[in-house]
Amino acid sequence: MQIDTLPPLRDVIAAHGLRAKKELGQNFLLDLNLTARIARAAGGLEGVTVIEVGPGPGGLTRALLAEGAKKVIAIERDERALPALAQIAAAYPGRLEVIAGDALEIDYAALADGPTKIVANLPYNIGTELLTRWLTVDPWPPYFESLTLMFQREVAERIVAQPGSDAYGRLGVLCGWRTEARIAFNVGREAFTPPPKVTSSVVHLKPRATTDGVAVRDLEAVTRAAFGQRRKMVRQSLKSLGVPMESLLAAAGLKGDERAETLPVATFLKLARARRG
User: Fold this and answer.
1) Shortest CA distance to 200 belongs to which of 161, 162, 149?
2) Structural domains of the chain, ranges and CATH numbers in brackets
3) What are phi and psi of 200, to 5 degrees?
4) What is the pLDDT of residues 210-266, one digit of tens each?
5) pTM for the structure as a whole
6) Are 20 and 79 in contact (CB under 8 A)?
7) Measured on CA atoms in the order 39, 42, 44, 50, is the torsion positive or negative?
């Protein structure tokens, strides 16, 4: 697939010596059909600023620009990739800004410029941490309209997990609380260079517009206690919260013999409010 006049990604990688580094969590996507599909999964990009983490040789970056993003802000830690990204910036004048730095040290809210979306093939070694940071910002609703992100399939299943499933845990509660999350599509390991050991998934998360008066720290405390001993009844697992147990259970409408993996998000929110109250 030819989406612009730039060289094929394999040629870019060869020209700049961009061998993927395991220590940076790198797995490059070379199929421009696939990167275009990821860009489209983010929804309309006209007039939108897109923040991308870990662009590498720029396959997804090119797709985002070709799909009409007003501007792409690409955050790249690997200095070897900067010349390749500079080549893309020259082909799309004024529409690509590259920040050379650590994605875990960026003030993302400060980068938002009007309607903003975050779209990324995240480095696997920091993907979950970045997602958690984005979903625990205050105030809420946040500065971004949506998140469209690539994860290992196992992590994606945890993000969209429902009560009663083995994958349901702290991440599923957080994502279910603050977003509407769905798996857009799966990506086979053969699509990457080098191929990872697992299948990947693109997840689309749209922030919920409503607020409910629950503090992030309270929900985190409740889910940490509940899922820290997930096979125990909540009467036992929630003791570490230091709240009178009978009042805590009553506030959430629980008997006490339930287990964390069976509780809906709404119940965790009630427990969080009771902890604060």
Assistant:
1) 149
2) 9-207 (3.40.50.150), 216-276 (1.10.8.100)
3) -115, 165
4) 768 899 999 999 999 999 988 899 999 999 999 999 999 999 999 999 999 999 999
5) 0.94
6) no
7) negative
